[in-house]
Amino acid sequence: MAGKQRPSSKTPARATAKTSETAAAEKASTTAKRKSANDATASGPLGDINGERSIAELGDDLVSGKKTAATQAAKVIETLLEQEPEAVVPIIDRFVKAIAGEDKRAAQTAAAALPVMARVAPARVARHLQRLKDGFDVATPVGKDGLVRTFAGLCTASVAYQKRLEGVLNKALGEADAKTLQKWTEIVLPALKGEPHARARATVEARLERIPKAVAQKTADFLGIKLRLRYR
Questions:
Q1: ∠141-145-151 over CA atoms, to 5°?
Q2: Model confidence over 65-115: pLDDT tens digits?
Q3: Torsion of CA 150, 153, 159, 162, to 10 degrees
């Protein structure tokens, strides 16, 4: 009987050893995967932040006028906007400079960043309000779109900004092409309250008879009005 029991007494020990080996292998695999992920992050856009380049340096590169440096900085900044937007608050002034500038890549990044900054740090953006307003006329279409979304964001953050921005927003609605008008109407009108809202709405309604019917109908539906127009 004793001889028959020896194999069975060794089985748990072997199973335990096998389980320990499996656990060790799984742990090693997990560690390797984490290291790989960390290495990928370090070598990717955020690696510049974790390395020697600072946020301020990225902002300087964005507005440097050097195409390669600006493009690389733009990629890192746009990644930060998605993952940690508060990190780029210190370079709001660079976005203000870029959004109406000649560098299209920098303007594109600024147009993406400033509406987010208007939500995250509206007071910091408002410090540059006059410059942003002055830049509207010379901005590219992408820049203008970013400015309109930024202005609307500020009005959403506080009605106190409405008085300072009503003029430029009405100008934008009055000059936009049909498709852009539809887009901006849906951004601007919900951001305004009281009389500024009523005046902006009137600007849009006055244009409906002068834009293509398909777009006018969509805008009218958004406004909740019936379209009765003459078309060329």
A1: 140
A2: 999 999 999 999 999 999 999 999 999 999 999 999 999 999 999 999 999
A3: 30
